[in-house]
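Morning. Coffee machine broken again, so started the prediction first thing and wrote up yesterday's gels while waiting. Chain of 388 residues, entered below exactly as on the submission form.
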Amino acid sequence: MSTSTAPASTAMTAGQQPSHVMRTFVRLCWLLLGALFIFSGLVKLNDPVGTAYKLEEYFEVFAVDFASFFLSFKSMARTLSIALSSLEVILGVALLLRWEMRFTMRALLALLVFFGFLTFYSAAFNKVTDCGCFGDFIKLTPWTSFFKDVFLLGLWAVVFFNQRYLRRVFAKGTVGTMYITFAGAVAVGIGVYALGHMPYFDFLPYKVGNDIGALMKPSAQLRYKYIMEKNGTTQEFEEYPTDTLWKFKEMVPLNPEAGPKITDFKVWGAGQEDVTQDVLKGNKLLLIVQGVDKADRDRFAAINQLLTSIDSSKKSIEPMIITSSSPREFDVFRHEVNLAGKYYFADATVLKSMIRSNPGFLLLKDGVVKGKYHYHDIPTRATLEEDL
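Came back before lunch.
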């Protein structure tokens, strides 16, 4: 009896072991897939304006490559930004709760295929160099973004074809619906608040505390390697070869992380004079009007009041108005909103990176960002003096 029982027990244990390993693997994939969707959605909701800029970039590309009607979506970019980002969070929560798994898995697949198409198209045709998958928190190259989506599809496949290991539902029926509704409300609320104020976490080069002037310079001496060719042979050199038979092909930085973090910041006056260094000296309050066509005009009564009040500031705060609009457009605009003061010009992309508000304020002390203010949160003179 004992000799026949032992082999049976051993066989059962051996049979259970692969099942236990598979169950653990599937649950890890399930947890990772749900967590990554929630993380991705929350990072985008942190800066819905930045996500909207990325959507606008895709719409412009698709309008040229496919059909012009994609341009009509640009006006809805901010709404779509919050909607798509919130959907990622909702589906991630639904997956972790194992709520309505059939519907949730199909919705996740649709979203993954959609994102996979975008990232592949960007990578294969070099259309959008940064998909914005994780906002400005994690910058990914187009091909890295695509392979990230392939990895997520792999996680999805593991979970989808092994749902027998995920039988327990953590929230079902009315309770499950309430949880999902609450998750959706929180996600939308996070995005709407960030849209009407400022990102909760600023990952851009112009965040509070950064020294713009310092970031315009290399943090260390840049080193390069030179890719040269001679007689069909390619070779790398750390110093430029003196042999003139070598033909130059490419120069590759060896320490790109030491390069300037800000490369395009430039401000100029009406006569094209460069005033960039003037901006980075002393206490400056920059009123940034990214473009007059989309600037909120209702806030200029309070803005004008602030600009008038800082004339008597003990901190000697100098206001500077900076826009990307043409001189003619801005001259008409400033008369419409009674905006007095000398104005300057900068690239539209730079101004969008500086602040996610149109109009908005940047407070600088010798080029160091001391404060950023949305037009919904216009500071007082006392606030500016305190921040300095």
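Residues 224-258 form one domain. Going to sketch it on the whiteboard this afternoon.
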